[in-house]
Design a protein that fits this description.
The complex is a heterodimer. Chain A is built from 13 helices and twelve strands. Chain A is of the alpha/beta class. Chain B folds into two domains: about 190 residues, 3-Layer(aba) Sandwich (Rossmann fold); about 90 residues, no CATH class. Chain B contains ten helices and twelve strands. Classes of the chains: A alpha/beta, B alpha/beta. Chains A and B meet through α7, α8, α9 and α10 of A and α6, α7 and α8 of B.
Chain lengths: ~350, ~350
């Protein structure tokens, strides 16, 4: 199944990844590295290219309508070099994925059990009964109550949280090394979201899984991820450990994201600090730093030249001309905003 | 400064004075029949006896999991679905009665929905959508369009650029601003916001929340703000109502409810918010499983099967919504003296 790989090879490594649909450059030069057994969160707003980056790892885009450049290495395989047959072995076998809306990802006319058994038997030579026993064990593993009965349920007979657990069971059915999660908790209630996040953390620890989770919720990212990468307009603007990103951000966009959260507002009647404007149109990308038009520190140079990636401390990388000013502005605390209320 | 030139004072239409609740709801019930097979008739108890007041000029936040009845409550308040039983008074007048017919009430109360795209007519420009309500209500066409443009400018969309666009030509945050402008076009006093910022990106969400605060102050509005995000509710609300399976679990000033929650369910909701502290991650979920089905709610206290404080009495007695502090009411036997629960306080608080 999987080739033995040297221990130093990372679980996922993207080098200079560029993805374009027609003339729109959605992902524009992403370098990312995920060590084995680690969890990485990709965060950003809608349209930042975070989901496209994730899907590119499984090559989920039709070749005719997308153009992928760069290098993708995942679970020891060179993904862009795989032929059709190897690719279908790779998907699910080495790297698998869970989606935001499990009701859309499951086939509505087969039971959950049938779909898990199909996935197992597609990848391994194993009897129907053995595959069913393994599917049952998987449902138990993701803590679905009364798994024996649930195995014969259709997806619509389950609640949202249970469907997402079943989806995780399906993703784990062929013992992948890497789990990709695309907004796995966005459609769930807060009380269920925390349960699913804790389950992902437990699976990472117990099975030694490497996880990439895409989310727009910084809170969810901090709950599961060891490292966080912040994306903006198809580029990674800051990467670091969860602690570095939340406590010591060096990019103005990360700072804006942290500041605009409602729990940061001190008093009632105070206003939230916002990032002005809206994300750029990727079809007409301005020269220079894509965040410059919305940035509180932007100077002339920012509008002309894309900043290089600087390493502010080992492993903490930032793409900004003004990293020191930004970090200092964050440490100085929120600028008191005039209360413009009558 | 109002953008609507001939705008009357929002309080001019006021009848009961500032102390009278703008909206007063009691015993609100809505059951939906389930048609399935031949078995006994079953109903979804979406809203099952809800009482609350909305005070003039306040923001009442409503929180709860999916299926708790918060959106059904909003639709009942707007008359989008018909209530089974219950009384709704708007500024002291029974809604649907002679003094406050539905038509005039709907001019005073407007709603903004979660899905900004689905709630706009795709074949109307932004300006036409905003001007539609006033036109139907007898404002001359030219004047309605002028007002629509003024409102667009007020919600931060330059009329020259945006008035002629169709909903699919603008971003989600901009569409939600259009929906807010449309809700304000009839100069309402009450605006219901049903998950109005939930679908927006965080940075856009903050902009829209600020806009809502400004508009409230400028037009003297009262908000009912429904959300599942406790942080947003804490930020915007004066009072918070927590719903569970069609009933009110807790209601009170937001500082008091969210800082010192009385109901174990509110505590669990607060504990399930991500911590945003990498050194102090959540270790254990306080609630297991999914929100239960409102078709067959458990007897007694509806929360008792998932509650850490549950005792025998909780399965038998339905807890009333009683005050634990001034203005802060909780429906939990463990907080109510003489309820038979072992953790109940001894002394009786003056209500």
């Amino acid at each position: 199944m999987t080739l033995p790989t040297a221990p130093m090879v990372p679980a996922v490594e993207l080098t200079g990844l560029r993805v374009a649909f027609g003339k729109t450059q959605v992902v524009d030069g992403v370098d990312l590295r995920l060590e084995r057994g680690q969890a990485l969160a990709l965060i950003g707003e809608s349209g930042s290219g975070k989901s496209v980056t994730l899907r590119a790892i499984l090559r989920l885009f039709p070749a005719g309508r997308s153009r992928i450049e760069g290098h993708i290495q995942a679970a020891g395989r060179d993904v862009l070099a795989l032929d059709k047959r190897a690719l279908s072995e790779f998907r699910g076998g080495d790297v698998s994925m869970i989606f935001q809306e499990p009701l859309l990802a499951f086939d509505p006319v087969y039971t959950v059990g049938q779909q898990i058994i199909e996935a197992i038997r597609r990848h391994e030579t194993i009897s129907q009964a053995d595959a069913r026993a393994r599917a049952l064990a998987l449902l138990e593993r993701v803590r679905i109550p009364s798994p024996e009965r649930r195995l014969d349920n259709y997806p619509h007979e389950m609640s949202g949280g249970m469907r997402q657990r079943a989806m995780i069971a399906l993703a784990l059915s062929c013992r992948p090394q890497v789990l990709l999660a695309d907004e796995p908790t966005t459609a769930l209630d807060a009380t269920v979201q925390i349960q699913v996040l804790l389950l992902l953390r437990e699976l990472q620890r117990d099975l030694g899984l490497s996880i990439v989770i895409v989310t727009h919720d910084l809170g969810a990212a901090v709950e599961v991820a060891d490292r966080i990468a912040v994306m903006y307009a198809g580029k990674i603007v800051e990467t670091g450990t969860a602690r570095e990103i939340v406590r010591d951000p060096h990019h103005p966009y990360t700072i804006g994201l942290l500041r605009s959260r409602a729990e940061g507002a001190l008093a009632k009647g105070s206003r939230l600090e916002t990032i002005p404007g809206s994300p750029p149109d990727l079809a007409n990308r301005p020269p220079g730093c894509p965040f410059a038009p919305r940035c509180f520190l932007a100077g002339d140079r920012c509008h002309r030249e894309m900043p290089p990636v600087a390493e502010v401390s080992p492993g903490h990388k930032v793409a900004c001309w003004h990293t020191e000013d930004a970090a200092a502005a964050y440490r100085a605390g929120p600028t008191p905003l005039a209360v413009e209320m009558a | 400064m109002s953008v609507i030139p001939s705008s009357p004072d929002p309080f001019a239409a006021d009848r009961g004075g500032p102390a009278q609740p703008l909206l007063s709801v009691s015993g609100l019930v809505k059951h939906f029949p389930v048609r399935k097979g031949t078995g006994p008739k079953r109903v979804v108890r979406a809203v099952d006896g809800v009482d609350f007041d909305v005070l003039k000029g306040e923001t009442l936040g409503i929180v709860g999991e999916s299926g708790c009845g918060k959106s059904t409550t909003a639709k009942l308040l707007m008359g989008l679905i018909e209530r089974d039983t219950g009384d709704m008074l708007y500024d002291g007048q029974a809604i649907g009665g002679r003094a406050m017919p539905w038509r005039s009430y709907r001019r005073q109360a407007q709603m903004v929905f979660q899905d900004s795209y689905a709630s706009l007519n795709p074949r109307m420009t932004v300006e036409q959508s905003i001007a539609f309500g006033p036109k139907v209500n007898g404002v001359p066409g030219r004047q309605a369009v002028e007002r629509a443009r003024a409102l667009l400018a007020r919600v931060g969309l330059e009329p020259k650029r945006f008035a002629g666009r169709y909903p699919h030509e603008i971003s989600g945050g901009q569409r939600q601003r259009v929906n807010i402008a449309r809700a304000l076009a009839l100069e309402p006093r009450l605006v219901l916001l049903d998950e109005a910022v939930s679908a927006l990106d965080k940075s856009v969400e903050a902009q829209v929340l600020n806009l809502l605060l400004d508009l409230k102050a400028e037009f003297g509005l009262t908000y009912i703000f429904i959300s599942h995000d406790l942080n947003v509710v804490r930020f915007i609300s004066d009072r918070v109502m927590v719903m569970y399976l069609g009933r009110v679990a807790e209601i009170g000033p937001s500082d008091s409810v969210l800082a010192a929650p009385g109901h174990p369910y509110t505590q669990a909701l607060l504990a399930s918010m991500p911590s945003l502290d990498p050194d102090n991650r959540t270790q254990k979920a306080l609630l297991a499983g999914d929100p239960p089905n409102p078709i067959d709610p458990p007897g007694g206290c509806r929360f008792h099967p998932r509650c850490a404080l549950a005792e025998g009495v909780c399965g038998q007695v339905e807890p009333p919504l009683d005050p634990v502090m001034t203005l802060h009411r909780v429906a939990c036997l463990a907080r109510q003296p003489g309820s038979g629960h072992s953790a109940a306080p001894a002394q009786v608080l003056a209500a």
